[in-house]
Amino acid sequence: MIFANRACLLIMLAVIPLTIWYILKGRKRKASLAVPSLAPYSSLPKSWKSYLQHLPFIFSMASIVLLSIILARPQTTDSWQDTEIEGIDIMMCMDVSTSMLAEDLKPNRIEAAKEVASQFIAGRPNDNIGLSIFAGEAFTQCPMTVDHAVLLNMFQNVSSDIAARGIIDDGTAIGMGLANAISRLKDSEAKSKVIILLTDGSNNRGEISPLTAAEMAKSFGIRVYTIGVGTNGTAPYPVQSAFGTQYVNMAVEIDEDMLRRIATETDGIYYRATSNSKLQEVYEQIDKLERTKLQVKEFSRNEEEYQPFALALVLLLLASVILKQTVLRTIP
Q1: What's 246's DSSP letter?
Q2: Whole-structure pTM over 0.85, yes or no?
Q3: Helix 148-156 and helix 109-122: axis angle, to 10°?
């Protein structure tokens, strides 16, 4: 229990001088009936009222104590302490070019990447996370936010058919995607700033080269983890024809050297994910690597607890009045 107004507890110190005054007053009190000697009355038994004569004063002192506690506002709280949480700023940078529809990962690369990334986001409730997507050009799908419900909802709207439908140009502008993510992180004051770049190809579009973007990330203290997603050799790729969906074997061409250089330049790590399970392992490793302790002060809702003391005060005052007006009533 805590007190919102601790200074009010000093009121109960008034009990000390009042008690002294009461004792001294009792000693100086003169009898209303003067007799030469009390010896004849010494053998008489004491009345039960004599044991109650000090109760009104005791009740009054207890009332002062209770009143001081009530004015001090006693409260209970579930949590009022310094704790540590783990939180960093992260931008997910995902390739959404049409090649991400290849089905070497199940059901395809883009859906597998979305599922694993969503699990990663759900496992980091204290992080500020955003999403940048790119194909032949790049844009921010979701700015950094701690409202992960909104982020995950935006994540589900990511699809590789946006390039096929002409919403954005197709291609793989890795440098542009990385630069877009950097623009969201560069002004962050977080102790740790991270970009997770996922792609299945090599840079073939955009005005900014991947290595130039990597130098930009390094200058802003941003670490980049790069992920090359796709099996080795060839991958089945769906093609729409007059006879329905046909599959052709598409060569997997990931510029691993470039992805390694981006990671090395920014003190990150390059990973290759050739299957759903490998992709899951990659995100688990990144999750373990990126943990930063933050000191926060936790507050919970305070509950006022004066009611029992107020009830006791009312009962004491009532009992004191009843005693004085009944069994302890004096006649002047």
Answers
A1: E
A2: no
A3: 170
